[in-house]
Amino acid sequence: MSLAAERLIALVSGLSPKARESRLMILLQPHADDSGSDPQSHTFVFGGLVAAPSEWLAFTHEWQAALDSGPAKLEYFKMTEAMSFSGQFARRRGWTVANRDAKLADLVEIVMRNARYGAWVSMRQADYRKYLQSIPLPVRNTTTDTPYLFLITQFILMLCEHAKRNNADCSFDFIFDEQIGIDKVAILWWPHLKALAAENGIERYLGSPPMFRDEKCILPLQAADLFVWEHRMHQTKNKVLVMPPSKLLKRLDELLTINVRFSETALASMNSVLVGMSAQYAKENPDKQT
After folding, report:
1. CB neighbours of 261 closer than 8 A, spacing ≥ 6?
2. What is the mean pLDDT of residues 117-133?
3. Which of 26, 133, 153, 176 has the lowest CB atom count within 10 Å?
4. Measured CA distances, 165 to 154, 168, 170 (Å)
5. C-alpha distance from residue 82 to each of 103, 213, 224, 249 (Å)
6. Does pLDDT of 20 surpass 60?
7. Each residue of 76-120: pLDDT tens digit?
8. What does pLDDT average to over the chain?
9. Global pTM?
10. Partners of 27 in the beta sheet?
11. 272 Cβ partners below 8 Å, 6+ apart?
């Protein structure tokens, strides 16, 4: 058994007894990552792929075999390195455009064979700064000044709403790429997110609190990296002209995918509500202002 497969089994084994044994519904594990977190990026996308633990185990064996083959063994996969011929895909290791593209095509086929569906949410960085980052807050830090927490929340709720609309007998345990600092805040936010889900009748779809893991060790996160990178680049290319999807994205589009792209209009509507909430909080808590 490969080290990656052992890590995935350990990850599943680390779930709560309730999550492993007492669940009557099918357990699904969305593995998700972000792309475009740099404020200079046109679009920020958060998303990934959904499958059951047994399906992820089969995926892991295939993905590891693909990493081990080729002109040079890959210790891990990162889309930015593949496209820039850096790191694991450095040209000095024998990588060319032709064998790089062949490797990417192979990896996409592994996704298509094993993932049940994909999901992503996105927004333009400029819209985030104008309508969400501009909202007055008593305290500002790296967790409040990035679209990450907003999009991760919307990603979770979107999957639960999709399950509800389809009367799905499933529950989600979310596994995300490590985000130093933000991961702790996201876990602290979990009880509030569950309360919000309960208000909307979708709490039954939420399993254990999200887990944040190293994408170099958890191979499904590397597939999520490829998936969101392709969707972000397509949105970036279409910011002025309508451009066709890349060959990889065209193939990935054959996978059932649910998504929400937050438009400027939608974020403007949220802004008016959130500004009012911020003002009310400031009025009720004058001692907490900075």
Report:
1. 121, 122, 123, 235
2. 91
3. 26
4. 16, 8, 12
5. 9, 21, 14, 15
6. no
7. 999 999 999 999 999 999 999 999 999 999 999 999 999 999 999
8. 86
9. 0.85
10. 171
11. none
